[in-house]
Each structure stands twice: as structure tokens, then as C-alpha cells.
Amino acid sequence: MDFITGFRKKDTHEISDILESGFTGNVKINGMIHTIRDMGEFAFLVLRKREGLIQCVWEEGKINGCVKDLKEGMTVLVEGIVHQEERAPQGFEVLLSDIQILSSPLDGCMMPLPISKWKMKTSLETKLAYRPVSLRNIRERAVFKIQEGIIRGFRDFMFSQQFTEIRTPKIVAGNAEGGANVFKLEYFGKKAFLAQSPQFYKQTMVGVYDRVFEAAPVFRAEKHNTTRHLNEYTSLDFEMGYINGFEDVMVMETEMLRYTFAFLEKAYEKELKILDITLPKVDKIPSVRFDAAKVMVSEKYNRKIRNPYDLEPEEETLIGRYFKEEYDSDFVFVTHYPSKKRPFYAMDDPTDPKFTLSFDLLFKGMEITTGGQRIHDYGEQVKKMEARGMNPEDFTNFLMIHKHGMPPHGGLGIGLERLTMKLLDEQNVRETTLFPRDVSRLEP
Amino acid sequence: MDFITGFRKKDTHEISDILESGFTGNVKINGMIHTIRDMGEFAFLVLRKREGLIQCVWEEGKINGCVKDLKEGMTVLVEGIVHQEERAPQGFEVLLSDIQILSSPLDGCMMPLPISKWKMKTSLETKLAYRPVSLRNIRERAVFKIQEGIIRGFRDFMFSQQFTEIRTPKIVAGNAEGGANVFKLEYFGKKAFLAQSPQFYKQTMVGVYDRVFEAAPVFRAEKHNTTRHLNEYTSLDFEMGYINGFEDVMVMETEMLRYTFAFLEKAYEKELKILDITLPKVDKIPSVRFDAAKVMVSEKYNRKIRNPYDLEPEEETLIGRYFKEEYDSDFVFVTHYPSKKRPFYAMDDPTDPKFTLSFDLLFKGMEITTGGQRIHDYGEQVKKMEARGMNPEDFTNFLMIHKHGMPPHGGLGIGLERLTMKLLDEQNVRETTLFPRDVSRLEP
């Protein structure tokens, strides 16, 4: 019998003690061998830890053992004296006096990718095939720190606005978004699905907490392999009650983006620098009606409108270009999508029910958000279901909230990986997904 | 074309402006009608918002309209004068001068449950069947605020310890925990599964960021309906590199619990009071070997040891009772579980390979955490797989990390709903799950 009481004094230093706090003198640090440059009489040994890299110097005679016994991928505990050294990439250098091997990679096994290079210059296919290793590259891991920053910024902002965080089920009996892109599941003899969105549940929870959010996986059985679709992605969802219109939702998103980018600038400065990212301005975001946007780009770029009820990806790109050129904005809200293109829970515009009180947010010409006002009235919701040939009895649990009262409400869903992709100017959403799932990719 | 620029000055007050900041005078507030008590000449109207309840007084002649037109579940915008009133349950009262109906529930439809009662005194079955409505009860919603607080405390602590937050796939090709309790899925003609845990991925990410965590859903196709099993639950996972032993993981968990309970005490004081919860002490947590714990309870409670290699639920309860009685501790770490009861990635104790370098954390007699040190050496991992009749070639992606080097590491997974259940002294884990999934429950 023993007691666990809590942290004891650490007997090692962190690399951040040196790089960020400027510690010099005797140190003991652990880390993974990132590179070895053997110069004969001495060798440079670069260690990798979560905070960055630190250069160590192995000098024949000052330390026991042989540098030839070391290899990339080993984890070690080293002792030495750290001092400032302008020529070292990080401005500090550790003169080694002792080294102890904590773990070793498999003997005779080469790294499949040059992860210690600044840019790996490897195809996306190869990077994804060796994801467990390629993520160890300094730039690759900066990508997912930025993504962490976005999700933190989102949550912190939501909490500051009195939203409650919820966790809704991913195994569901019915789906909100409709269509064929649903994963089916055998559930104890019943048919079940993977949730395409938390839509029913987040609306439900508005009746409980007024304002709710969730950042969680959603699943879409999209059969087409494109540069912007994933079969599993992270959706940043929020839903808010007591709105005066769907504009309140767009305002909330604008403020959220502003907060999040400011947070990234402060807390993820290092990673923004590693990836050389300039954050976009979000002091004001243009908002344009769907039908007007189509006309604008048709006229400016001399492009025929083929389908008045849908936006083609190329049109999205052109709308993005238009507002960049005319208003220097990377973002644009497109509002009032046609009713037939929106789900049954979307509120129609009372002044013209062919359109909905809804919006998408485009970022550098790509849709990253879909949102809008929802129907809160029982009769109106049932009527819209019936008009679409749906049976309200299939939605008894969802309709329970309308039956027993709901405030006017609306919300949105943001694709985290797409937002990250556009922020980092990547060309494929798989670049900003830790372990992407697509039609041909189920591993790693 | 328009611009979205950000928040404008609000034209309504929040209930918290009154209840927490003591605002008095003319107010305009919105909310849902929680109860109406019609006294004839006047009526009490209690509004519900996320922050709590506020009592309004409807006095004949001072306001237009008829109180009979109002009903529970309506959302309204009211105007009036707020003043301190000792006899009002919240210490404040609004004398109404105007009321506007924002939305109405379905006509002639009664609330299926007395949600405005302090305690609903309804069976769990009924509460779950009407979950979208029953959650509107003040005590019910406090439960899930506490749960939000736990997850926030967990994350904040992890960030303070330089852990990186990750998002790992829930659709997977193979599973770490083994056994039959896996949900199967058709994935574009391939066989896929729902992740039982993020185990492979969190170990993988230790090679990238040293320390990682995730709070996300996991899926277990458990066929038995018990008071402590769910088929989908939230797992709080962390995994850390450069450990000296699995004790480092237990220390981290102890510190996390301490931080989280302190955070709850500060930020969720209101909800703790609503539910009358006393937080447990976590200044030190006893730690006892699996085999020793079995002997201890066998001797003290005169109970025969039937299976030396497993803990029966009743034994867990008795171990919890033992440490409460002997050491006044609600928590106890049970360490060194038998190897045959732990997954293939668990590190065996070199001094006795029949046991593992692992632990469970029991809270009031129930397992809420499983953790331990993992194998980091390629040869050792392959050998253990082979000894279990597994084919290492089925685990090429996982073994990639061992092949290319991993620090000594370990971690754990905490069942969020179970932790909440024991903290709130509930008897069924469904009480602390928003929308539980079990063998017979796929809705709401």
C-alpha cells in the first residue's frame, strides 16, 4: 500500500526552459534524436521535443561511448552544459557530458521519409501512407497545432458567450441532413446510422440551455473523392435561441472568427511563423444574397448561369475572387439559399418561400460553414415535412421540442479541416486532417 | 450587399444581469414560461433562461391582455420594473408592463412531465423517453453543466501540462481493445469498425507531440444492459511520453482530478449547490496491488476469492468500501493487473510477467479509469502479439511507430459519464448521459 500524492520535483529540464526562458548551465534533458551530423572529431546531435529542437554537441573525449551507436529515432536522456551559441539554429547549444539511451527503433530500419528536412518534398499520398512518421516533421506538426488553436479559440469564445458544451450521440436512429451519404450500422438487430450532423440534438438542447455548442466528429458517406470532401470530419457546431433573425448567427460567427484569429496570433505565434501564415482580416464580412451573387460573378467574369438553384464549386471560387478583388475580403456570407437545396428544418423566408433564411460562409472561395434560422413552430415544421413527402411520425422525438415550445433559434456548422486548409492555403483537405478517411483510405 | 461587422448593443437584459449583478429598474428580458400561478387579480409568471429562473408579476390593469392566453412552454419578451423582493424565490421580481409572445407550443398539448417541479419524481425510463423535455428541469440541466465542468477542467489541466489536443478517427480498420464488443460497419465495400478507444492513435501521436489528449466518443457493442455500461460514451484519454514508470500516469491523473474539482468548486458553484454535492478529497490517493487488494477485502469482509485473475464488480465495491473505511478515501488505484486480462499493448512487469505495469482507478467502488505503461520496443510488442496468436502483419500501421522509435510512454482513459455518475452519487450511468445508447435504446 502506497499513496499517490502529486507531482514531485522534476529531475530533468524542458527544452522550453532553455529556448523560451533562456536557461544556461548544467542541464539534463530528454528527447528523440532528430538528426545526427557526424563531423569526425565531433558530432551535432539535434533532439526533438514537443516545444522544438535543440542542438547538442558530441565531442570525442568529453563523453564516453561512440556516436556511431546512436541513430535517428532513438530517445535519449542527456546531460551537459547549455550555453548561448549564435551559430546554432535555435541560438543555444548543449555540450554533452553524458548520454543514456531510453529506447531504440528497430535495428537496420531506415526512416521511410526525410522527416528531419524542413520541407519533406514528398507526395501527399506518401505522407499519408506513413502518417505516423511523417507527422513528426516540424512543419507537419505545426499544422495540427494551428488546428488545435482553432478549436480552442472556438470553444473559449463560445464559453465567453454563455454557450453550454454538449455531447450528442453519434449512433442515431434517423438523420437530419437526408440524402444517400449515410453510413449504416447494425445495432443489436436494429438499423442505425452514423450521425451526419448533431442537428436534431443541438436544436433540442437549445430548449434546455438556450445556447449550445459541440466540436465533434460527423460522418458522411460521400462516394466521390475530391480535394475538399472527407468521410469523417470535425464539425464545430453552435445553435442559439432568442434570435431576431439569422443575421444574429452570422454576427456570432464573425465575432468567433475574430476572437479565434486573435487567439492564434497570441498563443500560436511560433507555429504561424513556422508555416509563414498571415491571418486574414475579419473586421467586417460582406454579405450578399445567393441570387445576387450569381448575377455579380456572371456579369464580371462573363459566365453563364446554368442552374439558378445551386452554386457550382467554380461559382463559389468566383464569388470568393469577386469579394477579394472588390472588397479585399477573404470571407463572404452568401445568404437566402433556395429552399429546395436546404434541409426540412430550415426556415423559409416569409417574403418569398422559394428561399430560406440561411447562409453559407465562403473562405477564399470555399464553403466552410452552413447555417441559418430553424423552424420553431410545430405546425410549420410538420407542414414542411409533409410538403416534402416525409412522414412526421418518423420524427416524433425531434418534433417533441416543437410540440412543447422552442424559442426562435438558429445555428451553424463549420468544417474544422476545411477552415484549417484555407487558413494555411493548402490545396487538399487531407493535408489538414490527422488521419483522413476517404473512399479509398481507412488506414492508418 | 451588406457588411456583418459584429455585435451591436443588446436591447434586452440577461437574467444574470439581475440575479448576479443586482440590476434594478426598467428591464426588457426574454425567456420561456416555466410556470404560471394564477391568483385571480394577479399572477406569478416564472421565466426560465440558461442562468436560472426569474419571477414576474402580472397584475390586472397594469398590463394589457389576459393571463389565460399564456401557457407553459411559450417564449416571451417582457418589459417591466425589476426590484428586490425577499419573498421571491430568487430575491428579485419583475412587475410586468408589457408582454410579447415570441413562440408557442402546440395548442392543447400538455407537458408530459412536471419539469417545473424541483424534483420530478419520475422513473428513469420516463425521463429518458421524454429526454428532450425532461432535461429542461432545473436539476436535470445542472447535471450536465457539472459534466461540462469536468471536461473543461480536464482540458484546461492538460493544456497547462503541455499536452496537445488531438482528433483521431472513429471509423477504423482494426481495434485495439479486442473482444467481441465491436460495432461493424460497411465502408465502401470494405469492413470497418467503430473505434473502441483511440489507443493506437494516441500512442502514435506521442511520437509526434510527446503528450496528447482527446475527449471524444468511443463505441462498445456490449450486449448486457447494466447500470454502468453504455454502448457509446465519452472517453477522456491522455497519453504521455518520457515516463519513468506507470506511476507517472497515476500522478498526472491525481493532479488532474485535484485541478478539476477545484475548478468545479469555483466555476460551477451554483450547480453543485442545486444538486447538493460535496466534492471528494483528492489530496492523496491510496494505491494497492491487484493481488493484495483481493486478499485485503477477502479477509476483512470474509469473502472467498473465486478468480485470482479478475475483479468481480462486487469486489470492486468492497475495495472501494475498504479504502473509505480504513483511509477515508473515495478513490483507490489498483495496480498490476494480470497480463491475461490486459490488452496486447500493455507492458508486462519485468519482475513478474504474469502481471502488467497497469492500473485502474476506482471511485466509490467503481472503475472509472484504466491505464498503464505501453510497450515501446518493436521486438517486445511483436513477441507479445505472437504469444497471443495475433498476426503482427495485421498491425503494420501501429507497429510503424515502434519500428521508427517511441519514447517510454503510458496513458489512460476515463469514462466521463461514470465519473459524473459517481460524483453525483447516481445509481445509473444513464442519469449522467444526455442521450444514452444501450441495447434497447437508440432514441431519442
TrEMBL record, chains A, B:
UniProt keyword Protein biosynthesis, yes or no: yes
Family classification: Belongs to the class-II aminoacyl-tRNA synthetase family. Type 2 subfamily.
NCBIfam families for the chain: aspS_nondisc (TIGR00458), PRK05159.1 (NF003483)
Binding site for L-aspartate: 177, 220, 370, 374
Function in brief: Aspartyl-tRNA synthetase with relaxed tRNA specificity since it is able to aspartylate not only its cognate tRNA(Asp) but also tRNA(Asn). Reaction proceeds in two steps: L-aspartate is first activated by ATP to form Asp-AMP and then transferred to the acceptor end of tRNA(Asp/Asn).
Catalytic activity of the protein: tRNA(Asx) + L-aspartate + ATP = L-aspartyl-tRNA(Asx) + AMP + diphosphate
Keywords, sorted A to Z: Aminoacyl-tRNA synthetase, ATP-binding, Cytoplasm, Ligase, Nucleotide-binding, Protein biosynthesis
UniProt lineage: Bacteria, Bacillati, Bacillota, Clostridia, Lachnospirales
UniProt subunit comment: Homodimer.
Amino acids binding ATP: 220-222, 228-230, 367, 415-418
CDD domains on file: Asp_Lys_Asn_RS_N
Entry GO MF terms: aspartate-tRNA ligase activity; aspartate-tRNA(Asn) ligase activity; ATP binding; catalytic activity, acting on a protein; RNA binding; transferase activity
Domain Aminoacyl-transfer RNA synthetases class-II family profile: from-to ranges: 144-444
Aspartate, as annotated region: 199-202
GO cellular component terms attached to this protein's record: aminoacyl-tRNA synthetase multienzyme complex; cytosol
Positions of the record's site feature: Important for tRNA non-discrimination: 89
Pfam name, any one: tRNA-synt_2
Name used for this protein in its record: Aspartate--tRNA(Asp/Asn) ligase
PROSITE patterns: AA_TRNA_LIGASE_II
Gene Ontology biological process: aspartyl-tRNA aminoacylation
Compartments reported by the entry: Cytoplasm
Gene3D superfamilies linked: Bira Bifunctional Protein, Domain 2, Nucleic acid-binding proteins
Enzyme Commission no: 6.1.1.23
Entry-linked HAMAP family: Asp_tRNA_synth_type2
Gene this chain is encoded by: aspS
